[in-house]
What does this fold into?
Amino acid sequence: MRTMNEIILLKLGEVVLKGLNRRSFEDRLNANLRRRLQHYGSFHVYSKQSAIYVEPQSEDCDLEGAYAACRQVFGVIAAVRARSCPKDKDAIFHCAQNYLDGELRAARTFKVETRRADKHFPMNSMEISRYVGGLLHDAYPHLKVDVHTPELCVHVEIREKAAYVHGPSRPGAGGLPIGMGGTAVSLLSGGIDSPVSSYMIAKRGVQLELVHFFSPPYTSPQALEKVVRLAKELTGWCGRMKLHIVPFTEIQEAIRRSCPEDHFTLIMRRFMMRLAEAVARRTGAKALVTGESLGQVASQTMDALAVSDEVCTLPVLRPVIGMDKTEIIAISRKIGTFDTSILPYEDCCTVFTPRHPRTRPHLEEVLEYEKALDIAGLMERALAGIERRTVSMGD
Ligand code: ATP
Ligand code: MG
It folds into this structure.
């Protein structure tokens, strides 16, 4: 591992960094990075000149792991590992040669690009690039200079404390630092869509509280473990979260007993929304998040969505509403939840599925059917039975 004098440089999203926002963006991001990096050793994290520096404080830091973790932190748009060296033109050349030797051998064309933040440095950017590029050219005679589309761009940054050399940066997670956008309650099933919708809202800087409804003995302990696993997989992006596990069996049985079959799913979904909103009220969350996609199933038609929204006062965010399944799957693969999502365990939604669900329900009818249910009592008992688990990366 090449940790000696190696650091991680992170670039932040620039567009959002205007005015007053900038400070809170950076503070939040640095705090999130520090928390995330705890697992990889001791690091000094600070921002300077529109970049964030992640410096290992000891030899036993896991820089590889830290680098991967940083690239999952929302608010980071690009990341690169860099080697530091003294601010001297020959030291910079030697550093480039040692650090990027493999890349320099493999490339056919290259260029050196310099950024000089320290204006006291005796050469300007152009002069540094030309000097270092010339020596590299001598050292690797097979290389041709290509200033427009080089295979390898050797970056030199002259900053306050030191000079840094690095190759191309890799994309970060983008988005906004978690916590900047408040808190929302995300309804997490064991499926493909809801981990993706959770990720998408977290990406906009929102801290999530996860809610899962389970119906033992109709749903198995393995089905619940699958959801816990999905929540854990999300922590790489979303950070540490609380998972509220809500017992749903009594409600489902009551609906089956007292309501017409073609309205099961709809009435059940209204309970989910009511319960999620109750959790939101208790946790200070300001919105609900679901993985619904228009027209995907009977309960996701416009009429059905209107009927389930009717029980909520908080906004219901549905980030995948306009996406095709294939698009949702692509994100699911990218964020690493797909393989868990397709494990074949039942969800409470799938245990009492009506044969002919209503796609164009009428609210008045639904309200009439719900009169057969003790909504307040069912809600109260479900809320009293909630089990809370903190899901974090480490465990
Ligand atoms: P997925 O299960 O991946 O979310 P889906 O197409 O199976 O997608 P539905 O089962 O119809 O969707 O549920 C729609 C949304 O309701 C889910 O995206 C999720 O947000 C929420 N939901 C469904 N079942 C549960 C559950 N058991 N616990 C928590 N939320 C759920
Ligand atoms: Mg589902």
